[in-house]
Amino acid sequence: MSEITRVPLQPIAKGSLTKLWLGIVVALLLAAGFAWSQRYQGVTVETLAPGAGPMPTKDDVVLINYTGKLADGTVFDKGEKVPLPLEGVVPGFSEGLSKMQKGGKYRLFIPASKGYGAEAQRNPSTGQVVIPANSALEFDVELLDFRSRAEIMAQQQMLQQLQQQGGAGAAPPR
């Protein structure tokens, strides 16, 4: 027969339960604060509708629909079926796009340090500030397609050759 060791339960000291709950609340607030600060220090990609297949690399050109907003919700830019080379955009946008899959819809959060930083962005026509300095950016992005830069260059060369061949053998108009 095995022996059972009994440990008497001690009553909870007065005020201990309140301290326990305060500790839990403080821990939750610290965790929420940490999560919030991480959102604005690193690029965050939230999946709204998943895509499929591989993700673009820095050598690719993406075709996207997007809406760019400031933290207060002000829309500063919008585009449909826009081709963008990943190397030709701000670092945070490139980093976020490389975490997306074709056909997916995403919300991308870019901290100022990976966006435009301390440099305000102005409308070239009016000179009006469109993106204030040190602004965090938010984009809704739909990744329609992407291709490698080499593939696009090969397609362009093929089109040029076809145009040259079509122009050389054609009869002059009458």
From TrEMBL:
The chain crosses the membrane at residues 20-37. One of its GO terms (molecular function) is peptidyl-prolyl cis-trans isomerase activity. PROSITE patterns: FKBP_PPIASE (PS50059). The keyword Transmembrane applies. It is an enzyme of class 5 (isomerase). Residues 59-147 form the PPIase FKBP-type domain. It catalyses: [protein]-peptidylproline (omega=180) = [protein]-peptidylproline (omega=0). SUPFAM superfamilies: FKBP-like. Keywords: Isomerase, Membrane, Rotamase, Transmembrane, Transmembrane helix. Its EC number is 5.2.1.8. The keyword Isomerase applies. InterPro entries: PPIase_dom_sf, PPIase_FKBP_dom. Belongs to the FKBP-type PPIase family. This is Peptidyl-prolyl cis-trans isomerase. It comes from Novosphingobium tardum.
